Amino acid sequence: MKEIILASSSPRRSALLEQIGLNFRVIVCDLEEHTPPGLQPFEVVERLAARKAMFVADRLTEGIVIGADTVVVWRGQLLGKPSCEQDAVEMLKRLQGSAHEVFTGVALVDAGNNKVEVSHEKTRVIFRPLDEEEIRRYVSTGEPSDKAGSYGAQGIGAIFIERIEGSYTNIVGLPMSKLSLMLKKFGYDIL
Ligand SMILES: Cc1cn([C@H]2C[C@H](O)[C@@H](COP(=O)(O)OP(=O)(O)OP(=O)(O)O)O2)c(=O)[nH]c1=O
């Protein structure tokens, strides 16, 4: 079996891979997350996921490298990780009482033969209405600080979610069903 390498510092992505009993190691790449303006959300997350995976694969001679990137899209606006607490409050004010989409791009790179596969998944999330006090209390827990859209569906943020259409794990940072099919194409079976 080839070694699996996760090119991500996200503890949620590691937790999802641990959940399915995958043996892997983490190599973190500290890349600037910049893309040219005017790209569609799926293009942004696919490009960033590919860049992260290729950066790590370039430094290896073998192994399958997984890269990923997650953004929240609200009425056409891309919301990444908040720059400060006020930014998080502003994002949550937009998301409350409405629907948004979470896009996660996933890239697999086989470091041995430079085979690359990139894809993305989209999940629709509906938030119940929130008042400003609730938003401020949530932001002061610190949970939003490292998360796209300023919430964690796997954490306290769960209490804001009325409904989800699509993959839950995609919201948390890795669409596991899609990932398993991509790994299969690289000759790696989970079961
Ligand atoms: C919407 C949402 C996002 N997130 C997280 C997943 C990602 O870790 C993060 C989005 O930022 P990313 O830039 O995708 O990932 P990262 O900076 O955490 O890690 P790396 O670049 O090293 O791969 O937001 C949640 O944990 N829960 C959620 O509900």
UniProtKB/TrEMBL annotation:
Main location group: cytoplasm
GO biological process, one term: nucleotide metabolic process
Catalytic residues in the record: D69
E.C. number(s) listed in UniProt: 3.6.1.9
Keywords: Cytoplasm, Hydrolase, Nucleotide metabolism
UniProt site (Important for substrate specificity): R12, T70, Q154
Cofactor(s) the protein needs: a divalent metal cation
GO cellular component terms attached to this protein's record: cytoplasm
GO MF term (any one): nucleoside triphosphate diphosphatase activity
Record's keyword annotation contains Iron: no
Subcellular location: Cytoplasm
InterPro entries the UniProt entry points to: ITPase-like_fam, Maf-like
A Pfam family this chain is assigned to: Maf
Family matches, as HAMAP family: Maf
Function: Nucleoside triphosphate pyrophosphatase that hydrolyzes dTTP and UTP. May have a dual role in cell division arrest and in preventing the incorporation of modified nucleotides into cellular nucleic acids.
NCBIfam families documented for this protein: maf
Identification of the protein by name: dTTP/UTP pyrophosphatase
Species this protein is from: Pelotomaculum isophthalicicum JI
